[in-house]
Request: fold
Amino acid sequence: MFQFKCKQKVFNLDGIKVGGEPGENPPLLIASMFHNKDRIVTDRKGHFDRKQAAELIKKQEELSASTGIPSMVAMVANSPEEAKIYIDFYRETTDMPFGIDMWVAEKRAQATEYVAKLGLQNKFLYNSITPWDKDIKGQVQKLKDLGIKHVVVQAFDDQDQTPAGRLKSLETILSQGADSFETVIVDTSVMNLPATSFSLIANRLIKEKLGLPCGGAYSNGTHMWKEAKTIWSLDGFKAMDAVVQGMASALWSDFNFYGPIVTAPRIFPAVAAAQILLSTLVYDETQKISDNANIPIKKYFSDFIGKLTSGAARK
Reply:
């Protein structure tokens, strides 16, 4: 269940290892900032509460350090001008890598040009090359010309929304040059909460065949279920969100777009707990614990690991 015959690829995103066998490396958690309804945003002209934004980033950094789970931020912008303001603020605030979340390809391209102008290609995760892009080959070439190194490829087939359809879509995109970057990670397109399972199964299929790091925006499945807050209250929604994010992180996910950065205090513990359980699930199957010193089980249960690997736990 947690071993692949295909050799798993591990990419280096500004010092963060992304990918590998389940339990080998902690998943990269990617927060969203400056999205619609983000309370720190005053308007879409780049005005926002800088003090609170910096505090949210600092809090994520603290949670990342304590759990061993790496992190970064994807900043939502409606225009290249807005994106530039966020990029400048971000690089003055933190050393974490970052992404820009812009749906319109032309505007995303202009923001990417600004990243290249600043020489931040090593820290930048391009999100994303999608099956809906009209000229994938042209987009790839432009990104290569800008020196972009790290990209997300989104896998989805409107005509075949099964896990196998996501694999087929990915292979089509990769065949058009999207496989030529230093880092290629695959977003298996979460559409709603129950269909999240299709994305997780697609993760396994893709890792089995291609060995590429996979993950998804699991927050799409939780935050889009508006009725959950009515059914279970806000506390119930938070519990549901944490469970889904944690469970998804343990099922063949190498990264997780986890939603608004304000939710970090519940998401990091949820994912850390899931990863601790994943480590012992993998151990039962392989008799091995990852050499990565930052996996959560080594952060919190080092004594247990010592007993387990010495055989004491079996006596």
In short: The radius of gyration is 19 Å. Residues 33 and 172 are 31 Å apart (CA to CA). The chain is about 45% helix and 15% strand. The first helix runs from residue 50 to 67.
